[in-house]
Every structure is written in C-alpha cells, then in structure tokens.
Task: inverse folding
C-alpha cells in the first residue's frame, strides 16, 4: 500500500507540472479550453487512483490483482497522452495568438526575387566577353607595333584637351592664352583654341550641333564637357597638324588639318570600355 501511495503522489506531481506548462502557454482565446482540459485530466487521474486504491486491502495485500494490473497498464499511455497534448498545445498556440506579418512576407518575397535577378545577371555577365580586357590587349599590341607608349591622362572630362596639350608640349609649341604672354599649353588653353576656332568658322560646325552655337562655345571654353569629333577637327585645323586616334579595336582614325604640309601628326589613344566614366583619351608618345 505504501508503494502505491508513493506512485500516486509522483503521478500527481507530474500532472501538476504538465498543467502548469499548459496554462502558461495558453492565450486569451485558448485559456478556457485549456482549463477545461486540465480539469478533465485531473478528474481522470483521481478516478484511476481511486480504482487502484480500492483494489488493495487494508493490510496492504492486493484484493483484485487482475484489476490492478489492468489499471497499471493504462497508467503509462495516459501519461504519454497528457504529454503529447501539452506539446501539441505549445506548437499550435503561437500560430493562433499571432497574426502573420504580410508586409514582412512581401519584403521577403521581394528580396528573394531580387537575389534571383542579380544571380541571373551575374551569370549572363560571366558568359559575355570581357570588352575591357580585349580593348587593353589590342591597344598594347598596336602600341608595340607602332613604337608608341602611353602617357596616362586624368579621366576628368578634360582628357581630350589634356592629351592634345601633352602632344603640343612635346613639340615645344607655345600659344597666347587669355590676352597674356605666351604660355605652355594646358587643357584650358587648348579648350580656348577649340572654342575660338569653332566660333570663327560657325558655318562649318553649326549644321552638326543640336543647340545654339553660343551655348556650345560656352560649354567647350568654360566647363568640363567632354570633347569629341568636332573638337578634334577644330584643333587639327587650328594647329595645322593631323591628329591620329588609335581605337581600341586597332583602327586608326585620321583627322586631317586641311592644309598643305602638316608635319608630324598628333597621336591619341581612344578607349570605350576601360574607364569608369566612359570614353577616354590618352596621349601617345614615341617610344624612347
């Protein structure tokens, strides 16, 4: 009888622990159902204990051994069922008590979609030819073949004018600039030469402009607007020198001065893919 009492006390403690956990996990919506369920578990345990106790005599001997054996066999399944119900309650309760955050779900889906697009773009880029590397290799080959070396020019919007100024300085050419004494050419003075020449020969250049000539002249002279074909043509004619532009594909574009004997030409390197700002000009000098 003493062993049976100990067993009942142990089962009561275990049930109380399980009930405590279930009530802690309960929400406002599930609290009533949890309380009813706990009360039913307590009733079932008390009923089983009474059945087991009635099967034992006052002297501690078993009065109905077969009945007691049957009840003991049911004890373990009952305990297991209680624990399983508790675990299920814990797993379901948060889902019942908290609504899904739709905004977070949308953001998560969008992040996944963006990652997929980025991965696809990276895969496509990896399959494309490396234009920068191809341009670099072609330029190196042509420079070696023609006996030229590059003078790197800063990619700041003035590169065409700075490259021409570097070529002029190697020929010891000086010019008047801003009404002052003659000075060594730099990008500012070369810009002024291009602007003045286009302004004086407006009929030759205006048909190629998409804005008033006066505005275009201001951009050439006073801003960091990039130079191109028109400016090269103006500079070749203004200085009386042909300008050879070595392209990234190996071609040489020749801008003629339009006069008789023009002397040694100016050499520039033109890149389309090798610089972050886009198109770029470097100065080309004869190999030492």
Result:
């Amino acid at each position: 009888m003493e062993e049976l009492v100990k067993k009942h006390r142990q089962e009561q403690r275990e049930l109380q622990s399980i009930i405590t956990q279930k009530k802690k996990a309960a929400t406002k919506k599930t609290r009533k159902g949890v309380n009813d369920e706990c009360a039913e578990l307590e009733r079932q345990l008390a009923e089983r204990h009474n059945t087991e106790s009635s099967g034992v005599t006052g002297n501690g001997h078993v009065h109905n051994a077969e009945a007691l054996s049957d009840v003991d066999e049911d004890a373990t399944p009952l305990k297991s069922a209680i624990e399983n119900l508790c675990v299920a309650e814990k797993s379901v309760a948060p889902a019942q008590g908290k609504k899904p955050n739709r905004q977070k779900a949308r953001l998560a889906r969008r992040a996944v979609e963006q990652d997929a697009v980025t991965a696809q773009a990276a895969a496509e880029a990896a399959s494309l030819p490396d234009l920068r590397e191809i341009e670099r290799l072609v330029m190196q080959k042509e420079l070696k073949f023609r006996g030229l070396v590059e003078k790197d020019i800063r990619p700041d919007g003035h590169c065409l004018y700075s490259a021409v100024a570097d070529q002029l300085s190697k020929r010891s050419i000086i010019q008047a600039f801003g009404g002052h004494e003659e000075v060594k050419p730099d990008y500012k003075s070369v810009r002024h030469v291009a602007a003045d020449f286009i302004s004086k020969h407006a009929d030759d250049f205006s048909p190629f402009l998409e804005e008033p000539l006066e505005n275009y002249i201001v951009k050439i002279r006073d801003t960091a607007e990039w130079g191109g074909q028109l400016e090269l043509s103006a500079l070749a004619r203004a200085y009386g020198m042909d300008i050879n532009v070595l392209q990234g594909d190996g071609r040489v574009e020749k801008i003629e001065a339009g006069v008789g004997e023009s002397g040694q030409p100016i050499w520039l390197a033109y890149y389309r893919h090798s610089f972050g700002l886009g198109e770029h000009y470097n100065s080309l000098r004869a190999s030492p």
